[in-house]
């Protein structure tokens, strides 16, 4: 547990003193260098690696890395794959790396690939949703926003290409969302906690402005071969949103400043793996992310 409910005063939003109290609890539990950068080093022999930013948080400095599939070909469509926007959502990071290691070569000459496997390395090390400033990057993908991870990624993406066919953003929904992070959010913002239900299984978040339902369903079909798909709850919802098709909900991505909104891609989605199920292993979760990426690319390139 990285949240202490004694932080702050109920009903009053946090100030800097409360954020300092929260930061003291956020100790590194794993290594970005060992787990992620070492695999990026090996991939640099096969793909063009770029360091698109550097973030300093307290005594810690992190280089932000991404990959291109090669030289950008203006005759080809462009696809963006992002992982680790929330550092604690492990299969988003590992799935993006596994895609590069196992599957990306199959798309050479067919699409310009841009892959940012670990958008939030400070949070990755601390298995946290927020960054050092107690800010959720995935509600702050706007150029004037407070999340440095988000603005750095947006700057790199805009410098790399102007037109995109696809963006798939790799996430997880975990039990800790309910037991820890929503409690912390309520405390930080000085509001009452409204308990929710964590869905048991994989689901997708489409863009309510343009859901592209056939695209979403193709991904669900592929992932269903790897792991189970989340059913709706008794109200017909998943995580408080109406189910629009099997395993699919929708959000207004741009309005909420979510990562999947940062390009003009026709096809966009956010994956949500459920790693806490007794029915899956960490490797199953990684495989589900890779299956989602490949299905997304296959459908987008065919349509």
Automatic annotation (TrEMBL):
GO terms for molecular function: hydrolase activity, acting on ester bonds; metallocarboxypeptidase activity; zinc ion binding. Gene3D superfamilies: Zn peptidases. It comes from the Bacteria. Keywords: Hydrolase, Metal-binding, Zinc. Residues 28-303 form the Peptidase M14 domain. One of its GO terms (biological process) is proteolysis. Its cofactor is Zn(2+). Belongs to the peptidase M14 family. This is Peptidase M14 domain-containing protein. It comes from Hyphomonas adhaerens MHS-3.
């Amino acid at each position: 547990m990285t949240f202490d409910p004694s932080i702050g005063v109920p009903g009053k939003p946090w100030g800097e003193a409360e954020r300092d109290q929260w930061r003291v609890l956020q100790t590194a539990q794993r290594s970005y260098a060992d787990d992620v950068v070492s695999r990026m080093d090996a991939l640099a022999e096969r793909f063009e690696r770029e360091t698109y930013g550097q973030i300093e948080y307290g005594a810690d400095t992190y280089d932000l890395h991404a990959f291109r599939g090669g030289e950008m070909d203006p005759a080809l469509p462009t696809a963006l794959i992002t992982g680790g926007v929330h550092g604690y959502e492990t299969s988003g990071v590992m799935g993006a790396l596994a895609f590069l290691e196992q599957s990306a070569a199959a798309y050479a000459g067919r699409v310009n690939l841009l892959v940012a496997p670990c958008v939030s390395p400070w949070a990755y090390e601390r298995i946290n949703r927020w960054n050092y400033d107690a800010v959720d990057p995935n509600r702050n993908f706007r150029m004037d926003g407070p999340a440095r991870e988000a603005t750095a990624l947006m700057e790199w993406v805009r410098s790399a290409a102007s037109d995109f066919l696809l963006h798939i953003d790799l996430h997880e929904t975990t039990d800790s969302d309910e037991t820890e992070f929503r409690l912390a959010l309520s405390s930080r913002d000085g509001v009452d906690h409204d308990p929710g239900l964590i869905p048991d299984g994989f689901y997708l978040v489409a863009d309510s402005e343009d859901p592209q339902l056939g695209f979403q369903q193709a991904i669900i079909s592929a992932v269903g071969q790897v792991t189970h798909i989340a059913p709706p709850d008794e109200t017909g919802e998943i995580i408080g949103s109406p189910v629009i098709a099997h395993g699919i909900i929708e959000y207004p991505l741009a309005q909420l400043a979510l990562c999947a909104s940062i390009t003009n891609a026709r096809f966009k989605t956010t994956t949500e793996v459920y790693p806490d199920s007794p029915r899956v292993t960490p490797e199953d979760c990684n495989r589900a992310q890779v299956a989602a990426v490949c299905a997304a690319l296959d459908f987008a390139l065919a349509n």
